[in-house]
Amino acid sequence: MSEGNLLYAQSGGVTAVINTTAAAVIETARKQKKIGRVLAAKNGIIGVLREELIDTGAESAEAIHALRHTPGGAFGSCRFKLKSMDEHRPQYERLIDVFRAHDIRWFLYNGGNDSADTSNKLSQIAEAMGYPLRCIGVPKTVDNDLVITDCCPGFGSVAKYTAVSILEASLDVASMHESSTKVFIMEVMGRHAGWIAAAAGLAGNRANEAPHLILFPEVVFDEEKFLAKVKATVESVGWCSIVVSEGVKNTEGKFLSEVGTRDAFGHAQLGGVAPMLADLVKRKLGYKYHWALPDYLQRSARHIASRTDFEQAYAVGKAAVEYAVKGMNAVMPVIKRKSQNPYVWTVEPAALANIANHEKKMPPSFIRADGYGITAAARKYLQPLIEGEAPPPYRPDGLPDYVQLKNKLLKQKLPKYVISDK
Amino acid sequence: MSEGNLLYAQSGGVTAVINTTAAAVIETARKQKKIGRVLAAKNGIIGVLREELIDTGAESAEAIHALRHTPGGAFGSCRFKLKSMDEHRPQYERLIDVFRAHDIRWFLYNGGNDSADTSNKLSQIAEAMGYPLRCIGVPKTVDNDLVITDCCPGFGSVAKYTAVSILEASLDVASMHESSTKVFIMEVMGRHAGWIAAAAGLAGNRANEAPHLILFPEVVFDEEKFLAKVKATVESVGWCSIVVSEGVKNTEGKFLSEVGTRDAFGHAQLGGVAPMLADLVKRKLGYKYHWALPDYLQRSARHIASRTDFEQAYAVGKAAVEYAVKGMNAVMPVIKRKSQNPYVWTVEPAALANIANHEKKMPPSFIRADGYGITAAARKYLQPLIEGEAPPPYRPDGLPDYVQLKNKLLKQKLPKYVISDK
């Protein structure tokens, strides 16, 4: 006998494996007798506020299974932070109204810090309002910035993409450097922490192996030292491969990408610290350069997902449902590293209160003394996260066989709600 | 009994599968009794001029086999165009001197138009000088701009990378558009022809499928029409995914990437038509944007190579050696499409004289009437080229198992030569 329905929502920037977690949630929930319908919010928490709820029961088992290897957020995600309860209590009450109208007893929120905070607050307000709700946070973020968990699903795949991409592009530059490109710069995501930039360091380890320089947001940019390093590398290796985090800042704490240049109309530069550094290298050292900025390609590259990441993304989704039906509340399934070699991990519950609004920084011990590379400690931590492959199936036409869901909306039961402070 | 040695050289921008061709050349040549040593030029034709020749006999069969799945140019490539024979005959004579000194009777030059021209001229000057040399051009270019051949090895893989990347990134944008990015722009290579941009069109076919707009170098950029298309797409689909070729030009025939903006120092913009268009969209339409510029990542992405491309790259290398030992001269193995459905192709010899200095343009019939997409004819041509996968083996640490050759140089026999007009 069903005790009510379960609602799953995706939040924040999507990843190559957030749908893997979604598949795990739906597949696991479908087996639970306690759970009636498995619903998903259209475009995350915005869809809950608007009472735009998707009935995943309309999707076949095959379609849900195919979600495991489909990037993006299948139900839509959003960048929308609820205000504090003091500031905007009606918004929280609206959420509870929607839960009540659709007999939603379990809410699984798949996101990062903000989502953990929202889930935690929702569990409190539900209790205060006397509505029986279990809130589970489900970890997801390419930024790898959640505390307590050893790593965040989504990060391992962007890490693998980054390491493979700089390895491949560096082989290209190595073969062209004699008469063409001498310096290659790839910009990666990571506005506040250098986790993704650090992962690029896995591409090479021995002396003179690419990437030769990594620029972290944790290390203040020193133009003179940077140029000297580039020059020394080109003179000894013949060429230089550089990975730069979008979050690199100058001595005044400003993003390099924002202070560098202005366009013809006086607008701040169109984005990108890579082109700015490339220009600097050209002006000061005269080297021919190329630069790349993969942007969304890096976090949606399901075709080069890490198997570790894929398995962890599935495991947290499965655990979240299991915790929910056990009656656990305001928790998140987190990944614990049980053993380094061989790499063994498990999933455990952790209180949302200890995760919400905290940010995991990259340990200073992960950055090499000269500031331009990673240490053995970083390598030890990062290495297992990119291990193994989990390729999607391919269609006969050569494209990955990604699924498109029907996303059939439930009939609305409540008055229309306008999100006033969006 | 060996009749002499074979020299293989790589030229121009490298690809994901130029080493596949190199592996085919070496593996096929090793089986030929007529061929003594199989040599490779270090950094292409520059290495021949400098008498920097690599003895591939120092490499194990396993290493050569691993070349098949290693991107970049294993022996080094170069951007170096020999002047005309009238202008610089001594350079051609130097090449013949090096061939003579190392008993090189077969020269296989793996490149594009320029290389075909060089091979053709070399065969002529060798004959004029009474030196017995067979010159074979081996096709390679991501630009797909060689005539006679149905397609160029290297193109199919960059085409697949491009289609897969825009498919994945578009799934990302689709899931974020409600509250975040509305317009995504990916810039691809193709300074003179829109082959790579066209390949992105394979990612979607049905109405409203991404990419919604493709900007070709063949179509003059019309700002007003472009903005209207973007606006209409965002209003009907909710978001807009755009692929732009680096070679898009304005009404005055200038590259958009060069005229758009200048930096704070008055330098021409740091490169990239994608950021320029993104800025335009933001200023004129107010949409939040993201843009990507994969640059070398697209042509070195061996991990997502097309199997068709991989097999063709191997086939032309094998055929080149077979033609060489048969005594053919001044020819190139080209790909012929024998059947469309099922896709069947074969390799045939074509005269270098008919290939050198010609450039294959994309047929106007491949571009949709509105100028922003591909036609059924383009789809029919492009589709088979991205079919099938040819993933590299992976190491236990999660990285592709790319090989690094020893590249042992032969002892020099001639006086040092300085390339005067490099």
Tell me what you see in this structure.
Two copies of one chain form a homodimer. Chain A has 422 residues and is α/β, with parallel strands linked by helices. Chain A folds into two domains: 4-141 and 306-357, 3-Layer(aba) Sandwich (Rossmann fold), CATH 3.40.50.450; 155-300, Phosphofructokinase domain (Rossmann fold, 3-Layer(aba) Sandwich), CATH 3.40.50. Helix content of chain A is 34%, strand content 16%. Chain A contains 13 helices and eleven strands. A five-stranded mixed sheet of chain A has the order 3-2-1-4-5, sandwiched between helices. A four-stranded parallel sheet of chain A has the order 7-8-6-9, sandwiched between helices. A two-stranded antiparallel ribbon of chain A has the order 10-11. The longest helix of chain A is centred in the middle third of the chain and has 22 residues, at 155-176. The radius of gyration of chain A is 23 Å and the shape is elongated. At the A-B interface, helix 6, helix 10, strand 9 and helix 11 of A face helix 6, helix 10, strand 9 and helix 11 of B.
Task: Lay out the secondary structure.
Two copies of one chain form a homodimer.
Chain A: E1 4-10, H1 18-30, E2 35-41, H2 45-49, E3 53-55, H3 61-67, H4 89-101, E4 104-111, H5 113-128, E5 134-139, H6 155-176, E6 183-188, H7 195-200, E7 213-215, H8 223-237, E8 240-245, H9 256-259, H10 273-285, E9 289-292, H11 296-300, H12 307-325, E10 331-339, E11 344-351, H13 376-382
Parallel strand pairs in A: 1-2, 1-4, 4-5, 6-8, 6-9, 7-8
Antiparallel strand pairs in A: 2-3, 10-11
Helix pairs in contact in A: 1-3, 1-12
